[in-house]
Amino acid sequence: MAKDFYHDLVKQALVNDGWDITHDPFPIRAEPHRLEIDIGAEKLIAANKGKQKIAVEIKSFLGRSQLRKFYEAFGQFSFYQEALLDIEPDRELYLAVPSDTYKEFFLTPLPLKLIEKQRVSLIVFDRDSANIEIWISAR
User: What is the domain count for the chain?
Assistant: First the structure.
């Protein structure tokens, strides 16, 4: 499976934020399908002395139609989220999107409503600095 255009940038942003990359890609089985979420990562949480585990699906939203890209990303995310709940319910799935796409498209009424209703966790990253600007957990 081809890596998203911003795969390496988001991977570096996660490392910059203190995450250990454990899988690249993160394989999951949803028989009869073999799926790959872009990245699996873990972070030690000092307060709990436990680990927070995430999986990250990265989307660039490059191209002419952000709406079409949203349809594709939303469908893929929903499929992965359901499969992940069956095999690793303690691992939270995030959709990583560029900050300009988040501001221009994701904050408009209908996408915002769908994201909240379907409990989509988001990572908003800066394309230039390889930093994570916003974490939105749906849990």
Answer: 1
Through-space distance between the first and last CA atoms of the chain, rounded to whole angstroms: 29
Q: Per-residue pLDDT tens for 46-74?
A: 655 578 899 999 999 888 888 899 999 99
Q: Is residue 121 assigned to a domain?
A: yes
Q: pTM for the whole thing?
A: 0.91
Tell me, what DSSP letter sits at residue 24? S
CA dihedral 78, 71, 100, 120 (to 10 degrees): -20
Cross-strand partners of 21? 41
- Tell me if 17 is assigned to some domain: no
The answer to whether position 72 is within a domain reads no
Nearest to 101 by CA among 71, 59, 139, 135: 59
| Buried-state track 97-106, b at ≥16 Cβ within 10 A, e below 16 | bbbebbeebb
Give the range of the structural domain holding residue 107, as residue numbers without chain letter: 24-44+56-65+96-139
